[in-house]
Design goal:
binds manganese (II) ion, binds 6-deoxy-beta-L-fructofuranose, 8-stranded parallel barrel, 14 helices
Length: 388
């Protein structure tokens, strides 16, 4: 068992990065529901994210999505974030909403459109230079809907060419994180559909390129913790987009649909040294609070990730290794289930109190009146959303 003091130290070091877009309106093709008090500007999104850090103590950074968070002065935005007690984290490129990218962005048959897409990716590195961000996250909606629509191999050549250009633009302390997704919005091929494709591209790109595991981007039944264990072993896991799902890319709160899967994933993270700062894993949320209040939704999500991490840190590793060595199938499984069935909430409440935080972040935020204040203040203007 990770002794309690090093488990507490690891929990104190934990950092969950919040997605700016989780605070804006989101939905499905059927409906995007507005909510009172939703941010209208990147600054208001950052202010809301700072509330999550204020009550959980472990959400010190906010990921941006460009152009959803486009501003004239990114250095000023980073300064504003610091004033709010957080920092700007990962920069997400967006080459999936421009009409020109209907048949693909960096994989588009048209070289002019590929150049336009690459320009956006490079412009996102300029944003990173201004915000001091280390990571550029790349997710491509690129794919096809019908057999024969385009040449799969040629699209991989085009993708590789663009990724190399981005790699070459990155500064010394900057990385590119390649995110894969099985399908949607494309329904026949997706050019980066799975971890193997992302891993193969990242191997060729070298140390600056790593894979992002979005927990909602796999075929049903996929053993995600195996992918995590494999990529960690290769030091090619760059980060997570945490969320949960019952069916497809539902982007529900992490741990809500399958807390046991989240525990198994965090068990492989702990076992593989993924909590060590030197491994450089970015733990990010990528969620949409379509019907539930957004700030409490993010607080609950951070707590779900924290609880899964605490349970993983409490696995009796000596007993587990012994049972595995001895082929004691039931014994080994029982060791893991003991940790999973451990109620870690008292430990985490105690940790918060020791760090001057309210033991119950959800209740503390509800009592703060912040939600009512922003609902009263943020009247008029255009509520933020995906702009799709
Ligand atoms: C794609 C994705 C990607 C983001 C977007 C908001 O499904 O997971 O990480 O750019 O959601
Ligand atoms: Mn994602």
């Amino acid at each position: 068992m990770t002794d309690l003091s090093s488990a507490k130290a690891a929990l104190r070091r934990q950092a969950i990065e919040l997605p700016s877009w989780a605070f804006g309106n989101s939905g499905t093709r059927f409906k995007v529901f507005g909510q009172p008090g939703v941010p209208r500007t990147p600054e208001e999104k950052i202010a809301d994210a700072a509330q999550v850090h204020r009550y959980t103590g472990i959400a010190p950074s906010v990921a941006l999505h460009i152009p959803w968070d486009a501003v004239d002065d990114y250095a000023a935005l980073a300064e504003y974030a610091r004033e709010q007690g957080v920092r700007i984290g990962t920069v997400n490129a967006n080459v999936f909403q421009d009409d020109d990218f209907k048949l693909g962005s960096v994989t588009n048959p048209d070289p002019g459109i590929r150049a336009k897409a690459l320009d956006h990716l490079l412009a996102c590195v300029d944003v990173m230079d201004a915000t001091g961000s280390a990571d550029l996250k790349l997710w491509f909606a690129d794919g096809t809907n019908y057999p024969g629509q385009d040449d799969m191999r040629a699209r991989q050549d085009r993708l590789a060419e663009a990724l190399e250009a981005v790699r070459d633009r990155l500064g010394p302390d900057q990385r590119m994180l390649l995110e894969y997704k099985l399908f949607e919005p494309a329904f026949y091929t997706t050019d980066v559909p799975d971890w193997g494709t992302a891993y193969a591209h990242c191997l060729k790109l070298g140390d600056k390129a790593r894979v992002v595991v979005d927990t909602g981007h796999h075929a049903p039944g996929t053993n995600i913790e195996f992918i995590v264990a494999f990529l960690l072993r290769e030091h090619k896991l760059g980060g997570f987009d945490f969320n949960s799902r019952f069916y497809a890319d539902d982007d529900l709160m992490v741990g809500a649909a399958d807390p046991f899967q989240l525990f198994r994933i965090m068990h492989e993270v702990v076992r593989g040294g993924g909590l060590e700062p030197a491994e450089g894993i970015a733990f990010m949320l990528d969620q949409c609070h379509n019907i539930e209040p957004k700030i409490p939704g993010q607080i609950r999500s951070v707590l779900n990730a924290q609880e899964a991490t605490a349970k993983a840190l409490l696995v009796d590793t000596a007993a587990l290794s012994a049972a595995q060595r001895d082929g004691d199938v039931l014994g080994a499984n029982a060791v893991l289930m003991d940790a999973y069935n451990t109620d870690v909430r008292p430990l985490l409440a105690e940790l918060r109190e020791a760090d001057g935080l309210d033991p119950d972040p959800m209740a503390a935020f509800a009592r703060s009146g912040y939600q009512e204040a922003i609902a009263a203040e943020r009247v008029g203007g255009q509520q933020a959303g995906w702009g799709a």
